[in-house]
């Protein structure tokens, strides 16, 4: 089963941001080759919120890292904003949010957000303005002088999102940013992230293990399969873009969640349990 329901509301006509054709990546290891990705085709358009979901080891993080030019593919084609991932990285085309917040404990929240801006060579006044604006966007205004260890896990992740946003990329790459948080905090951050997405009109690529998270957030859900890592299903969501958590009780939501679960079941092996 590949390529599903067509989305009448989706941004089909929008500009292509990520274009992937026949992409493969094989890691050579002491135990032989690991086919992390095999023959992946994917088109991500401006303004979409795309989630990668699949069993452990199916290549979700690897695919995100290829987009970010943190891994080189061994076959196929990929463009990001119409150029190579390396050119896109050098042009600071994306912000990257890691699984753990990856904030520097010896820097205040403001100084953590400032770091990429210092590397970009922005002036002190421009840095200050961007720090304030992006901390406000994630509701962390007033926490500039705190150190990461003085904040909760959810606040730390919001700070790392502010840091990724501060370079003002149109593309946000997020690798399980809320995976380590409890469900209530995760729900709250999911809502905030959707609001932020609506407000800033970014393209988001988001890795998750959670079906409700993927369905709640996404305009498109990509279900991956392991050994070798490949795309099993692409689901274009027909949920309205403007959503609140209540939508999770609706038949439309449950229908999509069911289809994602079917895909995950098909790709799951009991070795993973
Ligand atoms: N640097 C590496 N060297 C060798 N093998 C690797 C490397 N990085 C990833 N792999 C392998 O590639 C496959 C895909 O890994 P990846 O981390 O992308 O999966 P994932 O779907 O993100 O998994 P998880 O959900 O557990 O984070 C796995 O079999 C993994 O062991």
TrEMBL record:
<keyword id="KW-0813">Transport</keyword>
<dbReference type="InterPro" id="IPR027417">
    <property type="entry name" value="P-loop_NTPase"/>
</dbReference>
<dbReference type="InterPro" id="IPR003593">
    <property type="entry name" value="AAA+_ATPase"/>
</dbReference>
<dbReference type="InterPro" id="IPR017871">
    <property type="entry name" value="ABC_transporter-like_CS"/>
</dbReference>
<comment type="similarity">
    <text>Belongs to the ABC transporter superfamily.</text>
</comment>
<dbReference type="InterPro" id="IPR050166">
    <property type="entry name" value="ABC_transporter_ATP-bind"/>
</dbReference>
<dbReference type="GO" id="GO:0005524">
    <property type="term" value="F:ATP binding"/>
</dbReference>
<keyword id="KW-0547">Nucleotide-binding</keyword>
<dbReference type="InterPro" id="IPR003439">
    <property type="entry name" value="ABC_transporter-like_ATP-bd"/>
</dbReference>
<dbReference type="GO" id="GO:0016887">
    <property type="term" value="F:ATP hydrolysis activity"/>
</dbReference>
<feature type="domain" description="ABC transporter">
    <location>
        <begin position="20"/>
        <end position="251"/>
    </location>
</feature>
<keyword id="KW-0067">ATP-binding</keyword>
<dbReference type="Pfam" id="PF00005">
    <property type="entry name" value="ABC_tran"/>
</dbReference>
<protein>
    <submittedName>
        <fullName>ABC transporter ATP-binding protein</fullName>
    </submittedName>
</protein>
